[in-house]
Amino acid sequence: MSTRTTRLKDLAALWPLMRDPKIPFWAKAAIPAIAAAYVISPVDLIPDFLVGVGQLDDVGVMLLAATATVAVLQKFFANQQPEPEPVRVRTTDDPGSGPIYDTTFRVK
After folding, report:
1. Residue 44, class by beta-carbon neighbours within 10 Å (0-12 exposed, 13-18 middle, 19+ buried)?
2. Which of 5, 19, 34, 81 has the largest CB neighbor count within 10 A?
3. How many CA atoms lie within 13 A of 31 on its CB side?
């Protein structure tokens, strides 16, 4: 049961990952293109003329491709370095005091 719920969560995570402009196009299109080529090709594990059963392998390949795409994109995202936020320097009107550094910290 836990595998089924994690796969559903992976499929829900697919749409935001595919729309993310930071991820290159080739990373988003490689696995779905291979899966689409399998579905379109006449060579199947189970022939399509067996109504119902013949389409199950196509559905399985598409679900497997979606799960693999999410895994690859999440791994791609995990390897990305976060962009550092710029440090802003404010100075006061009093020349005797030094600059004030205004920054934010991210704790993991």
Report:
1. middle
2. 34
3. 17
SS3 sequence of 25-60:
HHHHHHHHHHHHHHHHCCCCCCCCCCCCHHHHHHHH
pLDDT digits (tens, 9 = 90+) for 80-92: 666 666 666 555 5
75: confidence class by pLDDT, cuts 50, 70, 90: confident
The residue type at 26: W
pLDDT in tens, 2-40: 566 776 777 787 888 888 888 888 888 898 999 999 888
Degrees to nearest 5, angle at CA 81 with 75 and 84:
150
pTM of the model: 0.60
94 inside domain = no
Place of tokens 């930071």: 22
Q: How many domains does the chain have?
A: 1
Q: Which domain holds residue 19?
A: 2-78
In a domain, 102, yes or no: no
Residue 103 falls inside a structural domain: no
